[in-house]
């Protein structure tokens, strides 16, 4: 295989995965929410509506692309791309199995968070350039919220990094191999400190994703459609797609960091070695289903409550968690050193 | 339910409105005052022992010769209701009573708009329900189309 | 109580008396303040509605905001004005119900009942006791159905989408019951001057009882799912407070008035139809915030369910309508009849000069009073609270615009 292909093929694979993911996740969202709400969701296009999303994508692609008067044209066109590209880039470091990954990075965790933090810029661009007050409010909210929640999100994974001693996602997964007491898998979610970290990760992750109960930027009962108000056709499709892709990324990160990635407990590793990616995808989809469950049930918090939760609760908690982890590790080390 | 007519009369007399007509009708106890006396009458009734704290509603009727305004007061401490009426000419200017009863704000705007009156002393005397140029709909002179006219359109 | 003028000035409604200058922007719209430290900020004026998803119909709030905080709010209405009052002057008395159905279209029975009561009062018609019971039964069924719509949309306003559909599930039972009895799901035209349209169909008693037995448990479930949620409580408690004096001054009625601590219920204090036979409690709030209004409405549904059972148990024998002429010609006179609708006191002020149509038909809409109060309580809240406060007051644009 030539070097060029070696670079291009994984990128194409990532794009393909992202688009397919989008289609599948939209169908899944409709079905999961539908059944949570005592209704059926799409039922008519294909068996149980499986082709509904495909039809919708066709519709989005062929719809008229409306550019309202008075918009800042350059920003208005750039914004969907500025939202879409970082969420595509984030796929690069996700390890689907020990060998299935687009690129191998020693600092994969850091990289993923770095590219994800570019998303709010695009959202703010979309909100600002739309020349619409609802969109502006949505964009401002999104920016404020994502800046506030990036910090606890990053801090919440630091204990994991300390426990596993690496920023490489593959190493973090392999640090979760083996068992405590002989039968409890060494997943970080079952570790007392890791459990608290996983809760913070869940809350901050939901906020980072703009998902209920933190869907400030597109709170449909307040801001109509938030930053996406003025977008139509595939530009809207891109904004929508990157949202689903982001929830895939966050779920995948959560699975990698806390739920042992592509591994399964109690089953010999070589049995499942070849279906690692499938296990990983299944676990990720279960994670996304949990997000959707929360979305279908919870009311939304208010913007000031959201901010005070982020700055006054989550950041102090995650900072002290890092301190406790450090102390605990030193204590364990010295106890082991003595014995 | 109905306040004592003599007490109402007495309160109004103390406020300087002598010889007010207070009658019991099918509507309840109705007290008729002159347009200029509505505001002082309300001030007196509100602060009196009858304690009419709420203006339930107000409405206007085109009687054919003039417009009759009807205010509906309610007291919760004594559980009593009183109707106050006054008659104004077409296109007259009526004084807002929102100082005594803020609940008059919107019904007054509506009444003025639908009966072609002008409001004075109202903080926001804009039209409420219809757009500019719509004739006062509740006047008897404003006709709605008959079936015949609809057919002929 | 304090002077109403003080209340109005306190809540920042209006310029002090006499200072209003027609050249200034209308009260409610103020100009941006001078900048602090050389920074000039501008207020954002936003049109909330008439096509906004959570203004419950076609309400348009012109909201002036400083960042996310409301500086002033002004309601602009009339998008649904159909001239019900004018049309009524051209309708015969037994056709008034159809107009009232379209006023407050979520609880139509109450509107019909108000107009029928007014006509009966004017003509002094004695109606059979059974008709009274049927009216109360239908009123209470309709009240629960209407409150469930409120509950669902209130949940939707907070972002809890599930609530809406769960509430609709229960409402569907009620709407089916109403349809079996009246023949229509929303526009009933069931209550007529002189009685009601029809008796309960065969087997309806059992169907209503089945719903009634299960409903208390459903209601508890709803309340635990939404009201028991801490996020919801944080959103609702302490916002949109209307104290007792302001509530009286702005003429609120119904659950909004009771939420502010005034125990006035037309059903109890001006008992009409068969409400003097009913045993029910009037729930009252203490602070008058959105949470109190929420709790009052939830309790009202429970009480309504109690009354439904009492109606079925005490349903008298006999006819369901009095003998009334085909064309009603009440004597000249003037009456006011009020009922406790789902939104408050719905009153009909009817003026007759003889003849077969009303001379003047005035529809006192409880939601209009709420709208005046809203303009005053919204400033100082955040944008997200606006939808919550509007949701908590349960306004109905059909009856505001008439």
The number of helical elements of chain A comes to 13
Shape estimate of chain C: globular
- The gyration radius over C-alpha positions of chain C equals 22 Å
Could you give a short account of the major beta sheet of chain A?
Answer: 2 strands, antiparallel
CATH superfamily of the largest domain in chain C: Cytochrome-c3 Hydrogenase, chain B
Q: Most extensive interface, residues per chain? A: B-C, 42 and 52 residues
Q: How many separate domains of chain C? A: 2
Beta-strand segment tally of chain A: 2
Shape of chain A: globular
Percent of residues of chain C in beta strands? 5-15%
CATH architecture level-2 label of the largest domain in chain C: Orthogonal Bundle
Mean pLDDT of chain A: 83
* Category from helices, strands and their pairing of chain C: alpha+beta
Structural description of this entry:
The complex is a heterotrimer of chains A (339), B (153) and C (402). Chain A is an all-alpha fold. Chain A has one domain (65-338). Chain A has helices at 3-36, 52-62, 73-89, 108-116, 119-129, 133-164, 169-174, 192-208, 220-223, 233-258, 269-272, 276-297, 303-338, and strands spanning 179-180, 184-185. Chain A starts with a helix and ends with a helix. Chain B is built from four helices and seven strands. Chain B has a five-stranded mixed beta sheet. Chain B has a two-stranded parallel ribbon with strand order 6-7. The two termini of chain C are 32 Å apart. The longest helix of chain C is centred in the middle third of the chain and has 30 residues, at 129-158. Chain C folds into two domains: 4-76, no CATH class; 84-401, Cytochrome-c3 Hydrogenase, chain B (Orthogonal Bundle). By secondary structure, chain C is α+β, with helices and mostly antiparallel strands.
